[in-house]
Structures are given as C-alpha cells and as structure tokens.
Design brief:
Blueprint lengths: L3 H9 L1 E4 L5 H11 L8 E2 L7 H9 L15 E10 L15 H4 L11 E7 L11 E3 L15 H15 L4 E2 L7 E5 L4 E3 L9 E8 L2 H20 L15 H8 L11 H11 L1
Helix pairs in contact: 6-8
C-alpha cells in the first residue's frame, strides 16, 4: 500500500516538508549570505566557509527519512548549490528539470526516470517575495512525455507548451525553512524580483532508484563535462557542483539517504562513452 506522502507526490508532483530548518539556522544562513555579492548568482560547495557543516547537518536531519516514503531506493546526487538573488526581471516561461534530455535527444528514457529536485528556502515563497516558486499544476502528468517523435518536433511542441503555460503558473506557498521535493517533469519557474528580501535557496538532486541514476547519468554526464570544460564564468547554475571523492566520503557514512559520488576525471572519461 502506498503511503499518503507518495500518493500526494504522484498526484500533485511535489510534497512539502515543513520546518526542515529551524529559525536559528535560517537566521545564521541569511546573515552569512547577506554579505555575498549580487553578481555571484550561484555558489557551489567550495564557495563559502560553512558549507561543509551545513551539508553535513542537512544529510543527517531525521526529516530526510520522509523521502523513503516517496521512493523505495532513494539516492542523493550531490549537485549541492545555492542560488542567490537570481530572480528574473519578469515571470519567465516555465521549464522542467529534465529538459536536457530533450536537448541531448534522450527522451526515449524519460518515462523510466524517477527524478526530483530538492529545494530548501530561506525566505517565504508567496506573491510578495523574490524567487518564489511558480508552477503549472499537474504538468508532470503531461502526455508530452510519452510522445514518440523526432527531436525537432518535440522541441517545437515543448516551446509551444512552455509559452502557453507561462500565464497559467500559480505560486507555490512555502515558509522559510521548508523543504520542497518536486518531480523533474513539473513545469516551474521563479517569480520576478520584488520586495527587499534577498532570494537565497539551496538545491540538490534526488533519484528514485539505481536504474534512474543510470539513465540520469547517461544524459547529465554530457552536461557536466561541458560545464567543467567551459572557460566562461558563472554562466550555469551547476558551476562548482562536482566534488572530490575525499570530500563527499565524509558524508557517506552518516547520511540518512545514500549519496552517489563522482569526480571530475570520471566525468570526462565517461563522456567519451556517452557521446
């Protein structure tokens, strides 16, 4: 029998874990990031002093056990990163987090992937704040993901549906400190800059089982390798998101959810197999 949490996740495309961070932690983190320069929109693992402690505390938070009610064999993919003040000037067309599968012509595996993005927010998500999550209800169930057509046609359909749903997005209501787990096929975007509260959000990826991890890596390896080899700074939100095995090994034994570890050299080697 499915848990109520899994039923909610499958029906709505997301679940909210309330009060994942306490008020003291939120205040400490906001004080830390208030000093960050706004031109640096994305921060990776090595970008701030207390990141290692924060991630260590996060991975041992007992509320992570709720993820096991959504996926039977959850695996965290350690693309830990912080987004700061990256709110757009206007509400953008929604996107989906597995959209790169279309870009790299791997849509034939999209139905078999259990993937979610995990977000933790240091400000309320509502109609008043910058960076609030907007989403298209039930879009994770779209027939689009089952269409068997050439990449060119799918790209055209994807553009049309994103344009159509831009003004049909609704605000995801969250409180500062909440954790949001949302399906990688759910159309979503971020609210325009408003108010005086700086947007600060923390993200990582979650796979539902080993098969999903394999499919995910077959696609993401291409993207990660391009990120590693790029000479342009701060152009992608995954910059600095790849860690050494030595760094992640500190977390593996204590993490409530298993972590998949990969280093830069392995990524560049694997790229040759997936091209």
């Amino acid at each position: 029998m499915q848990s109520k949490l899994r039923q909610q996740f499958e029906n709505d495309g997301y679940v909210i874990i309330n009060n994942f961070l306490d008020e003291k932690t939120i205040k400490n983190l906001r004080d830390n990031f208030s000093k960050a320069k706004d031109e640096k929109k994305y921060l990776g693992f090595y970008s701030w002093r207390d990141y290692e402690k924060f991630v260590g505390d996060l991975l041992t938070n007992k509320k992570l056990n709720l993820i096991k009610e959504i996926y039977n064999e959850p695996i965290l993919y350690p693309d830990f990163q912080v987004q700061i003040s990256n709110s757009p000037k206007k509400l953008l067309r929604p996107h989906w987090d597995l959209q790169s599968f279309l870009r790299y012509n791997k849509m034939k595996t999209i139905q078999d992937i259990k993937y979610s993005k995990v977000g933790i927010y240091l400000q309320d998500s509502d109609i008043y704040n910058s960076g609030s999550i907007h989403y298209v209800p039930n879009s994770h169930k779209s027939f689009f993901y089952s269409i068997k057509r050439p990449k060119r046609i799918l790209s055209y359909i994807n553009t049309l549906r994103r344009k159509y749903f831009t003004k049909k997005q609704v605000v995801m209501k969250l409180k500062a400190g909440d954790m949001l787990i949302f399906n990688g096929k759910l159309l979503h975007s971020s609210s325009p800059k408003k108010g005086n509260i700086k947007k600060i959000s923390f993200y990582m990826s979650l796979l539902g089982d080993k098969k999903s991890l394999k499919y995910y890596l077959s696609n993401e390896i291409l993207r990660m390798a391009n990120d590693i080899n790029t000479s342009t700074e701060n152009t992608d939100h995954r910059i600095e998101y790849v860690f050494s095995k030595e760094k992640i090994s500190k977390f593996k034994n204590n993490s409530i959810i298993p972590i998949f570890v990969i280093d830069q050299n392995s990524i560049l080697d694997l790229k040759k197999k997936f091209i």
